[in-house]
Amino acid sequence: MVLGSFSRSSTKIDYDWPVPTLRSLLDSPDQSVRLKAALAAGTYPEPEFIEILITQCAIEPDFFVRDTLSWALMRNDIPQVVKRLETELQSTNIQAKSQAIHTLSKIGDKNNFNLITDEMLFDEDDFVAATSWRAASVLVPDDQKPILVAKLITQLGRGDSDTQFGLTRFLCAIGEAIVQPLTEAANSSDDAVSNQAKFTLLRFREMQLESKKPSNN
Known about the structure:
The chain has 217 residues and is mostly helical. The chain folds into two domains: 14-113, Leucine-rich Repeat Variant, CATH 1.25.10.10; 141-209, no CATH class. It contains twelve helices and two strands; from the N terminus they run ββαααααααααααα. The protein has helices spanning 19-26, 31-43, 49-57, 63-74, 78-88, 94-107, 118-121, 126-139, 145-153, 161-174, 179-185, 191-212, and strands spanning 5-8, 13-16. It has a two-stranded antiparallel ribbon with strand order 1-2. Helix 6 (94-107) runs parallel beside helix 8 and helix 10 (161-174) packs across helix 12. The protein is elongated.
């Protein structure tokens, strides 16, 4: 399938790909067509693509296409993308909200940490909450780590095993600031909280030991 047309000169390559073409390709029932369209939109970014890419994030059923849509957005003007993502953060569409949060984590700018609100961290939907935990652990500035840890500690024991393991991973990513709060949580009378706190401490110590192992190279 032809995604666009190239006109070559000695100094540049112009990519002529109208917005309606991108929208049409992303509407395709074929996952491979949508994936190629997202890849092309990131390879040849245009400001006009931002709205289409974000709109598709809210409805795209395939994980790999969604991840490629986020990548394509990162190839565009970041301030414009973030401004548009802020609207998605208020959406009642769970996928739209969670994918916007995910994209912010991929962008990785700590200046966007304040966009991850308590409402998101404590969202009643486990997927939205877990996505927020991950984004917050990536974006949190050093001086705000203790505050974030105090909030995440309250989520120990929440949800199924995948949700709990995710929280453990995201806490470990924050670093040493988790040790004292987790040590206290390990003494909780709530077995689910206590067990996860102990497991997270163990996993964190294992990660520290692994990072100190000499390289085989």
